[in-house]
Amino acid sequence: MAGKRFIFWGASGHAKVLRDLLALQDDILVALFDNDGSVQSPWPDMAVHHGNAALRDWLAKHNSAPLYAAIAVGGARGKDRRMLAAELAARGALLPALIHPHASVARSAVIGAGSQVLAGAVVAADALLGSCVIINSGASADHECRLDDGVHLAPRATVCGCVSVGENSLIGPGAVVIPRIRIGANSIIGAGAIVTRDIPDGVVAWGSPAKIMRYKPDLN
Fold this sequence. Notes:
Layout: E1 5-9, H1 13-24, E2 28-34, E3 48-50, H2 51-61, E4 68-71, H3 78-90, E5 98-99, E6 104-105, E7 110-111, E8 116-117, E9 122-123, E10 128-129, E11 134-135, E12 140-141, E13 146-147, E14 152-153, E15 158-159, E16 164-165, E17 170-171, E18 176-177, E19 182-183, E20 188-189, E21 194-195, E22 203-206, E23 211-215
Parallel strand pairs: 1-2, 1-4, 2-3, 5-8, 6-9, 7-10, 8-11, 9-12, 10-13, 11-14, 12-15, 13-16, 14-17, 15-18, 16-19, 17-20, 18-21, 20-22
Antiparallel strand pairs: 22-23
C-alpha cells in the first residue's frame, strides 16, 4: 500500500526531523514550502517553493489525490504554526497528528490535529494536547496535562502531572514544571528552568526556581 503524500511548510532543521519520521511510516515528502525567500532546501532532491502564491500554484497542479501536510516550524512560533495550519487546511490539505514510533502515548491521551510527538517523547494518561502542539525529542507531558494549541515542549522538557500550559507557549530544553502549575499563554520558559509557581501570560522566565525576567513586547 502506497504511503501518504506530504507537503511541509518550513524548510529548516525541524523539516529534517519530520522527513525522517515520515520515512519510518513509509510516507513521502513531495513538496517543501517556506515564506522566507532566502531559505534554501536542506536536501538536493527537494526544491523550496516560496510564499503563498507558490503554494496556490503547486496545489492547482497536484490536486488528484489526498494530500497531507505538516508544519515544520519549531521554537516559540506557535501562533505561526496555527496560522499556517489553518491556511493549508483551507486549501484542502489534511493535517494528521504525527507520532514517532519510538514515542510513548497513552491510550487515554488526546492528540490534536497537526500536533507532533517526536522520538523518545512521552504523553501520559489523560493528557490533552491541542492542535499544532510539539512534544519534542525526549520531552514528557505527564498525566492529565493540558497543553493548549501551539504549545512546544522543547527536547527533554518535563511537564509533570496536572499542569496546564496556555496557547503558543514554549517550555525550553530541559526545563521542569512541577505538578499542578499553570503557565499562561504566549510565554517562554528558559532552558533548564525549574518552575515551582504559576507563570502569567506573555512573559519570559528562567532560573531555579524560575522567575519572570521580562515581559514580551507583543503577545506572540
